[in-house]
Amino acid sequence: MDGPHSDIRPDIRIPAELLPSDGRFGCGPSKVRQEAVDALAAEAGEFLGTSHRQATVRFMVSRLRNGIAELFALPDGYEVLLGNGGTTVFWDAAVFGLIERRSQHLVFGEFSSKFAAAATAAPFLDEPSMPKSDPGTAPVAVAEEGVDLYALTHNETSTGVAVEPGRVDGADAGALVAVDATSAAGGLMFDPTEVDAYYFAPQKCLASDGGLWLAACSPAAIERIERIKASDRWIPASIDLGIALDNSRLDQTYNTPALATIFLAVQQIEWINHQGGLRWAASRCDRSAEAIYGWADASEFATPFVTEPAHRSHVVATIDLDDRVEATTVSSILRANGIVDTESYRKLGRNQLRIALFPAIEPDDVVALTKCIDHVVSALS
């Protein structure tokens, strides 16, 4: 191949028999199943372009909320909230409506750091605690007096590190556990009794588009939302969790949502629930993870970025390539052959491939992807 940072992409064609049935491996937006798109097209005339305050859309929102409750086997008293703006907006909403005075944030990648930054910038909150670790590893939450919310991340999308969320031993009574599950929800197992706010956006495991946040909230989180709402804290209406709670109970959002996003998320959730629920979806991700990490472990030029096997994500795989193989060239050639979005997270700055293993992605396609990568690297050598 050309020099290590060449802008010239070799014209390498991958044999058709090696190609996956679907070449979408992006970590968000994710692959959307064709069956879901077909269902949307079939119902578009009666669903798209209709009022989100009327029965047609509110019934779809009800299906979404009930489907999530079934998918996660939520205990009695837990409620599913939703609002516009995605996870980034939920961080701001949580700063105003979930943190009372002080939070602790585990920081081990780009996205886990953003919630911490939002809490740090809030002038009405105390300085948060931020246990950190290097990308590719994960820190551990430690109980601290005065912390009323522990902010965890189930799966760090930027680095491919997954950590099982849970309560913090020795935490103050009443302290909440909030978990960013944006790339985990619907693909990784968890115990809902161990968390108070399990929040996410639907453009990853739920195979939909972005622009919506969803949160499975415990009775304790609901009580916190209502108590802060009743206080003298000023909260912008668009990120007011009290307003989101009231509207969610009516199966609607405060302002107009993207109807296609809601519909596609419902299609994915009901597909998963019909097949066997979260355990079934997680087993598909497990098969894909076994394929990609097994291939990397056996490869002469690829290695898993996350060295601790227990922390290797089963929904987002990060694979380092040897310096003699330029990852951007490999991704470019794959893209030219219809295999898209295998590039590393831009801010991580590694010679790396990042590959989604979400439930909508066929495990056999992950196997096919590894064969395509082998073919490309062989042709480049």
Relevant terms:
Aspartate Aminotransferase, domain 2, 2 domains, about 375 residues, Aspartate Aminotransferase, domain 1, disordered N terminus, six-stranded mixed sheet
Describe the structure.
The structure is a single chain. With 381 residues, the protein is an alpha/beta fold. The chain folds into 2 domains: 16-32 and 277-380, Aspartate Aminotransferase, domain 1 (Alpha-Beta Complex); 34-274, Type I PLP-dependent aspartate aminotransferase-like (Major domain) (Aspartate Aminotransferase, domain 2), CATH 3.40.640.10. It has 10 helices and 11 strands. The chain has helices spanning 34-47, 55-71, 86-97, 110-121, 219-229, 241-248, 259-275, 278-298, 327-336, 363-380; strands spanning 79-84, 103-105, 149-153, 155-156, 161-162, 176-180, 197-200, 212-217, 302-304, 316-321, 352-356. It has a 6-stranded mixed β-sheet, with helices on both faces. The protein has a 3-stranded antiparallel β-sheet with strand order 9-10-11. Strands 4-5 form a two-stranded antiparallel sheet. The radius of gyration is 21 Å and the shape is globular. Mean pLDDT is 96; it is low at 1-6.
